[in-house]
Structure formats: structure tokens, C-alpha cells
């Protein structure tokens, strides 16, 4: 009996050893194949243990310079190893970028999941069928008719902003640009996403909700450079991790309250319009339709709407995607115009012509297409200071790039991003360029949904600002840039009232 038992045990042990050896052999084969495939892409030599990890100078101006040098050195694509097992292929040419952007390959979970506790499985992070369905459901929220109706809300937020600029012009004081612009951008998205009037431009970060919304993206970006804290449990053990999750709860609680209140209003409106027919139905339509109305009423072809959690995720996604990027774009546009007074003067002349003999400072829908030079300046800002500097995808299948195979499971980076020169965006210059050469809003099926919303907002606020003020940089302040296109030192400038200044607003 003992012999049988020991024979069985020996057989099991041999089986286990063989199985492990087989697995290890397969892993080694796969690893060697991966190394061979990745080595076809040009690369800098790396260390056996940490690859090219220590060659990047980090999130600083130097880091930005390093990235530009790598693009110049490897103008189509190159590879780096982040440690011994983790290769990344970086695409730097419109042709190579196109290969990936034309597909719906999912976002890489390494980077994007840092935002998951806040924005959940909303459009920015979701993939597959869920993303496809929800992108279709949300598309009406970005229809031109809806975007047109938002201009009124944007003008109202700009009224408050201009009043603040007027005050600081009177006091002749320099102010930090990102922080003031952020409050304007938040005000716009809160009004448009769920008609939420927070007074945030006055209260600033005294408002707990605003404090949380401002802190969350900054904390997520900081965590990005601390890979040892990528695990949620480990992150939660740190004070900043606990603060991050607390802010997430605060933001979710406000979103849920707003959603619940709007549900009641929608039920009441449906009830009213049913009972009182067209007269009251028309009255109901007087209220602005905002993103939240569309999220709450959207139905797919099976008549299924979004679940409460999906609605909250989309609200939080729109809030993040809709304010952080526009803050960056407006701030750098102000910086670039202040840095180039002759270009600023040309924009002012264009806006003055448009606004001549007008009583109101409001920018109306038809105005947006009548500011070609300002539009070129905005595009040039988005190219030079692209708010999103790179996009990541995780391949689900072997993919041919530039004649070489990048294996499934590999991470691919797409860089989005010299002298401020708006003329490169004249119609003739633009038509000669590949559509994948200028992609601040990405391109293909996963391109930015809020592109027109954002450009309208940027154009409106710059036109109104330039009509009334001249932007002047603080000569004693050095503006530093980083790879996430925020400035660690901020931008300091003052506004000088122009002769066009009336007693309004
Ligand atoms: C200057 C402003 C903006 C820039 C530069 C920008 C840029 C981008 C980029 C590069 C992506 C692709 C991200 C990726 O693939 O990982 C993206 C996605 C997205 N953006 Fe924007 N964005 C801006 C403003 C907005 C605004 C105002 C909204 C909403 C109101 C918005 C909503 C979205 C959404 C929902 C997605 C996800 C689309 C999808 O995956 O299907 N964005 N944006």
C-alpha cells in the first residue's frame, strides 16, 4: 500500500515538475519572441534590469526636451523597455499613428485606471461593446443644435470671468492664470453638463465640491509618476491615497444628488406635458436641455437606458474631460498671445471688427466662424501646448506597424504634439498635411467627443477677453513647462483695459 502511495505521489510530483517546466519554457519562448519582435523597432540601448526607465528626466522641462529629441531621432517609431519585462512602442509619425488610431483598441489599463475610482467605466475608460453602445447614446449630447444652445451658458460664465478681469485690471495686479481660468472652465462644464450653478468663480476652492474636483486630477497625475502606488490598496495606505478616495466619495455624492433631483424634474415634466398637452409641453421645452437630460433619457435600440451608475460615471467623465483640458488650452493660448504682442494685436483687430457697433459683448453662434485668425492661433496653441500629450493603447491582437509586428498585449504610446506660427493653419497649408499630423483631440473612432464644445468655449472666451483687454506677462516670472502641459510655476500676467472698454459688464 505504501509503495503504491509513494509511486502515485512520485508520479504527481513528476507531473507537477513537468507542468511547471513546460509553463516556464513557454514563458521563456514567448519572452524571447517578444524581445525579437520589439528589437525590430529602433531604440536606445538600455540596462538589463531597468531598461530605459532611468533615461527619462521626469515630468520637467528637461523631460519635455528629451521627448522632443527622441521624436527627432526616431521620426517614425521607437521602442523603450520600462524594466526587463515591459516594452512600450512609441509612435511618432502620422503614418504609424494612423495604424492604431483607426482601430478601437482599448486604452491601456496601466495609466488610465488611475482615474477609475473617480470616473468609473465612463466613455473615456470603457472599451468593447459597452463603449460602443454608450458612445452612440451620448452622441446627441454633442449635436450642433445642443452645442448652439450652450453658447448662452458660456456667455453667462464669461460675464463673470470678464468682471473678475476688469477688477484685476483696475488694481493693476498680476494674477496666476491657470487657477482663474480653471474656475471659468469648471463653471462652464457644470452649467452645461447639469445646469449646476455653484458660484465657483467667486467662491473658488472654498466650495468643497470644487476643491475635490480641482484636487483629483492633480493627485492622479502625481500618482502616475509613483508606479509603486498603482495598486489601490497600497495607495489607500498613504495619506494622499485616503484623501483621493475621500474626494471621490464627495464628488460622487454631489453627482448622485443632482441626478436624483433631475429625475424628479423629468418625471414632473413628462407628467405635466401629458396632462396639459401642447401649451405646457412647450413651456417645459423652455428649460435648457443639458448633458444630464440626454443621459437620463437616452435609450438604445432595445429600449434600454443607462443604469444609475453608468449615468454617474458619464457625468464625472464629462466633468474631468470637459474642464481640465480646456483650462490648459485657454491658459496657454493667453500665454502665447501675451508672448507675441503683434499676433495678439491682429486677433484684437479681428474681434474689434466683428464687435463694431454692438451693444452686447456676447459671442453668438454665427460669430464663431468669423474669427479665422483667432482660430489659427487656437490651433497653434493646441499643437504647441497640447493639453493631452500622449495617448496609450493596449493591443488585443498582433498588429503590423511599419512592416514589423507588435504582439498582442503590448502597450503602444501615441505622442501628440517649436515657434508659435499660426500661419501653418491657413486653409492651403492645412490641406497639404496628413490629418494624423495634428491630433490634439486624437482621431478615429475614439476621438474626443467634446472637440467642438471645447473649441467654441475657447474661441468665445478669448474673443471676449481680447476685445476688452490686452494680456501682459509678468516680466519677473519664469514660466516652466512639463510633459503634462501644466506649469509647475504657473503663468502670471495682468490684463490692461483697452479703449473699447465700456461701463459693462
Ligand atoms: C481643449 C480641450 C480638449 C482636448 C485637447 C481634448 C482631448 C481629448 C483626447 C486627446 C481624447 C482621447 C483620449 C484617449 O484616447 O485616451 C479625448 C477623449 C474624450 N474627450 Fe476630450 N478634449 C478636450 C475637451 C473635451 C470636452 C470639453 C469634453 C466634454 C464636454 C470632452 C470629452 C471627451 C470624451 C467623452 C472623450 C472620450 C471619447 C471616447 O473614448 O470615445 N473633451 N479628448
UniProtKB/TrEMBL annotation:
Stored Gene3D superfamilies: Cytochrome P450
Residues reported in the UniProt entry to bind heme: 448
UniProt KW keywords: Heme, Iron, Metal-binding, Monooxygenase, Oxidoreductase
Cofactor: heme
Gene Ontology terms for molecular function: metal ion binding; monooxygenase activity
Sequence similarity: Belongs to the cytochrome P450 family.
Protein name stated in the entry: Cytochrome P450
Organism the protein comes from: Batillaria attramentaria
Phylogenetic classification of the source organism: Eukaryota, Metazoa, Spiralia, Lophotrochozoa, Mollusca
Amino acid at each position: 500500500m505504501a509503495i503504491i502511495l509513494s509511486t502515485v505521489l512520485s508520479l504527481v510530483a513528476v507531473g507537477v515538475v513537468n507542468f511547471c517546466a513546460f509553463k516556464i519554457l513557454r514563458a521563456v519562448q514567448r519572452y524571447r519572441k517578444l524581445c525579437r519582435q520589439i528589437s525590430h523597432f529602433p531604440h536606445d540601448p538600455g540596462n538589463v534590469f531597468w531598461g530605459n526607465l532611468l533615461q527619462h528626466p521626469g515630468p520637467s522641462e528637461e523631460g519635455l526636451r528629451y521627448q522632443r529629441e527622441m521624436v527627432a531621432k526616431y521620426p517614425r517609431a521607437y521602442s523603450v523597455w520600462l524594466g526587463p519585462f515591459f516594452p512600450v512602442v512609441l509612435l511618432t509619425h502620422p503614418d504609424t499613428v494612423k495604424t492604431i488610431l483607426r482601430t478601437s483598441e482599448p486604452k491601456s489599463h496601466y495609466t488610465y485606471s488611475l482615474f477609475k475610482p473617480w470616473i468609473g467605466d465612463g466613455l473615456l475608460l470603457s472599451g468593447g461593446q459597452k463603449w460602443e453602445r454608450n458612445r452612440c447614446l451620448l452622441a446627441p449630447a454633442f449635436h450642433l443644435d445642443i452645442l448652439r444652445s450652450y453658447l448662452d451658458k458660456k456667455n453667462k460664465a464669461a460675464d463673470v470671468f470678464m468682471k473678475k478681469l476688469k477688477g484685476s485690471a483696475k488694481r493693476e495686479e498680476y494674477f496666476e492664470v491657470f487657477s482663474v481660468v480653471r474656475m471659468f472652465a469648471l463653471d462652464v462644464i457644470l452649467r452645461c453638463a447639469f445646469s449646476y450653478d455653484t458660484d465657483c468663480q467667486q467662491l473658488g476652492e472654498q466650495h468643497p465640491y470644487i476643491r475635490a474636483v480641482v484636487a483629483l486630477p492633480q493627485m492622479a497625475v502625481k500618482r502616475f509618476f509613483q508606479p509603486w502606488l498603482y495598486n489601490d490598496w497600497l495607495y489607500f495606505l498613504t495619506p494622499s491615497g485616503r484623501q483621493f478616495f475621500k474626494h471621490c466619495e464627495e464628488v460622487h455624492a454631489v453627482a448622485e444628488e443632482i441626478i436624483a433631483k433631475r429625475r424628479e424634474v423629468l418625471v414632473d415634466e413628462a407628467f405635466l406635458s401629458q396632462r396639459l398637452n401642447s401649451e405646457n409641453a412647450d413651456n417645459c421645452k423652455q428649460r435648457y436641455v443639458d448633458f444630464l437630460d440626454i443621459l437620463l433619457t437616452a435609450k438604445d435600440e432595445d429600449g434600454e437606458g443607462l443604469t444609475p451608475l453608468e449615468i454617474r460615471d458619464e457625468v464625472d467623465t464629462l466633468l474631468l474631460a470637459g474642464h481640465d483640458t480646456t483650462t490648459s488650452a485657454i491658459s496657454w493660448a493667453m500665454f502665447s498671445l501675451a508672448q507675441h504682442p503683434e499676433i495678439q494685436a491682429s486677433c484684437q483687430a479681428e474681434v474689434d471688427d466683428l464687435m463694431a457697433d454692438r451693444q452686447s459683448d456676447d459671442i453668438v453662434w454665427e460669430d464663431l466662424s468669423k474669427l479665422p485668425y483667432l482660430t489659427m492661433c487656437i490651433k497653434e496653441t493646441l499643437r504647441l501646448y497640447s493639453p493631452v500629450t500622449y495617448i496609450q493603447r493596449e493591443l488585443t491582437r498582433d498588429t503590423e506597424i511599419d512592416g514589423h509586428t507588435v504582439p498582442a498585449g503590448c502597450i503602444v504610446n501615441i505622442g501628440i504634439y517649436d515657434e508659435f506660427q499660426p500661419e501653418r493653419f491657413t486653409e492651403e497649408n492645412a490641406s497639404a498635411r496628413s490629418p494624423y499630423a495634428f491630433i490634439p483631440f486624437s482621431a478615429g473612432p475614439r476621438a474626443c467627443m467634446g472637440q467642438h464644445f471645447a473649441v467654441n468655449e475657447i474661441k468665445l472666451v478669448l474673443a471676449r477677453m481680447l476685445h476688452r483687454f490686452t494680456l501682459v506677462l509678468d516680466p519677473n516670472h519664469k514660466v516652466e513647462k512639463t510633459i503634462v502641459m501644466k506649469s509647475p510655476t504657473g503663468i502670471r500676467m495682468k490684463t490692461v483695459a483697452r479703449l473699447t472698454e465700456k461701463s459693462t459688464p
